[in-house]
Amino acid sequence: MNFQPDRSGPVAQRWRLDLEPRTDEALKGLAAEMARPKLDLIETILNEWLVTNAYLPVPYALDEENPAEGNA
Known about the structure:
Blueprint: E1 2-5, E2 15-18, H1 21-34, H2 38-52
Antiparallel strand pairs: 1-2
């Protein structure tokens, strides 16, 4: 994976992300299936991974006051 500045495009598209071909193809296919730009999809995946692995805080308040169904 390689991040490189690309000064030829608009501000939102100035960074180019070089991925392994199979990873890039999988992301392109998923982005097309979800009708989202590939870079938005990468940002979502990365953000979810960072939250899941406790590198970022959970973006919503946990409701600990109301009872939940089931057993823990």
